[in-house]
Amino acid sequence: MKFLRTTGLAALLLVLAAATLAQEEMPRQGFFDVRSASTSLNNGVHELEARLQLILSQDALDALNSGVPLTIELNLEVIRVRGLWLDEVEAQLTLTYELEYRPLSQRYIVRNLNSGDLDSFATLYSALNNLGRIQGLPVIDDALINPESRYRIRLRAALSTRQYPAALRIIFFWRSQWQLESKWFEWSLER
């Protein structure tokens, strides 16, 4: 009889522990993904159209809401395909954006650090959605491309931590929630 009470008590404790763990919210997992990308020739310039999905991790979201600006980079490479040799990167472009939350106005600010342009959004969703829509971005002038060669382009998005002090970067290195980087998305340059 004593054994059944002990077993019953242990089972009840296990059920309560499981229920408590189930009620605790799992930390939000972030990820960056390039959903689609292409270029088109417009007035002698190849322009980029791309769609990205940018979801911040719980750590990044907590930092943003605590007043820490986040830096999101878009890396673009134009690569010349060389049959028997290694392919060669002909051009590189890095677009850098700063995402900031201003609690007083309850607005999310997106600053293009390349051009200085500034946009304000009422929600984080609309700010990230805007960052994830690239339209008509000049990539490379067609005159710089060898007409006899084939080219491919690749794009990726990443949460950058380079702007933080070295001590913080070491911590971020060991925290997987700060390792937000999409895979390279590649396509052929059409003329």
Mean pLDDT, to the nearest integer, reads: 82
**Largest beta-sheet details:** 6 strands, antiparallel
Question: Number of domains in the coordinates?
Answer: 1
How far apart, in Å, are the first and last alpha carbons? Answer: 83 Å
Radius of gyration: 23 Å
Q: Number of helical segments?
A: 4
| Strand residue content | 35-45%
Total beta strand runs: 9
Series of H and E elements? HEEHEEEEHEEHE
Q: Walk across the major sheet and give the strand order.
A: 6-5-4-3-8-9
Shape: elongated
- Range of helix content: 10-25%
Question: Which class of secondary structure composition applies to the elements?
Answer: alpha+beta
Uncertain spans, ≥5 residues at pLDDT below 50? 3-24, 167-174
Quick gist of this model?
This protein has 191 residues and is α+β, with helices and mostly antiparallel strands. The protein is 25% helix and 44% strand. The protein has helices at 2-23, 58-65, 124-131, 166-174; strands spanning 31-42, 45-55, 70-81, 88-102, 107-112, 118-121, 133-141, 150-160, 185-188.
